[in-house]
Specification:
heterodimer, A: alpha+beta, two-stranded antiparallel ribbon, B: mainly beta, eleven-stranded antiparallel beta sheet, seven-stranded antiparallel beta sheet, about 50% strand
Chain lengths: ~100, ~325
Amino acid sequence: MRYIVAEGQEFSYPADPESLGIIKNAGGRSQLSDEIRAKVKFKTVKEGEDCGDMPKSARELYLSRGWVIDCDEKLAQIVEPEPESEPISEKFWEDLGRPLEEVK
Amino acid sequence: MAKYSGAQFALFLVDAYNLIVHLSESASMGKEEITQQTNPFGVTSEQHTPVGLEKGTLAVGGGIFDSTTDALHDVAPGSTRVSRTISAAIEGNTIGKHFMGFEGPIDSKYEVTDKRDGLTMANVNYLVSGAVDEGVIIQHLASFTADWQTKTGGANAVDAPVDYVADVGQRRFGMASASKAAASVITMKTQHGSPIVHGLTSGQLVFISGNSLAAPAINGQQTVTVLSTTTFSVPVDTTLSTGAGTDGTFVLASTVAGGVGYLHCTAFAPTSLVPKIMHSPDDITYAALITFTTLTAVGKERKTVTGTVDRYLAFDGDHTGAGSVTVFSGFCRN
């Protein structure tokens, strides 16, 4: 699965699972002590950039709002083939040259 | 609610000027919804109908007349029909405290009063023809010499993000019950004979407390799915929960109608500053809510935004070059 940042959006989030774990244990970014904060890494992503490593809960919320784009889903919509039409039957060609009354 | 005095009134920003040091006696600010008296003949009490207009008023009594640059004397007389951006706070220059913002053409009445045995005083009355907003301070007026942000202010730090759930001004909605189901259904409390209308939108975040369901509980932050104007569900499987599911209240943890951001820069020395207001549903992942125009000098801006505004609000300053910048920012939810 590949996720990208939608137009006009910008996100800041923990850069790796270890950082995410530390923040969750602390109860949020605002609750980090100076000492612990020095161990945590953050990353910023802007529109069009990959954000597949964003924490899952936020990604799902932002997907539902259209702030993050699921590329696979979008690609599938673009290349989805048109439904095939029914083949023209033999009877159609036979009926084509006959008077309307006979066809009915 | 805490009480406040003149000692906490620490902020009166008009465009890029902080006039607080020039005020000495009184200042009042207000937002008034204009109504028209609509009671017909034959009734014994007045009726008033809103006409859909608001009026902002600001009055400064007993400002100290001062002819130095940036003082009340310079800003007030030139104010008439000039569009100004004003931010004023009576609860203190502190992140999370409330402020009022005004923007639009401002008419002012300015009086200078000479006294035989005292300082010359100046009274100013402003009538605002434009926007009046009430919100919270995201970045208190302070100076910075490098990049900064308030997302990681530290435990109990003064520069932490603003948590909307902790806003004492919020309405607390009463719940009657929460069901035991794959997605627990909440029914609103009845008041004056009918259930309270929750006013929520599917996908909105609420913070529930005091409900009696346990293991698992529904207390805490939840994403709602609206079922009717008086019921909604939350994605918690409470089929095996203990407790009757009665009672509880909730406050909003996100809003859906956008808002307005205010920015004032009263001193500027670096090359540039990109000021942003960020918001977050969980205090872990933040998204840019408002990116103000890049500053290259002192200035001010009021900027509107539509759509969802999440629970936590923080400020981010991207500072380039050497020197100090002094900035204030606030946000008002719609």
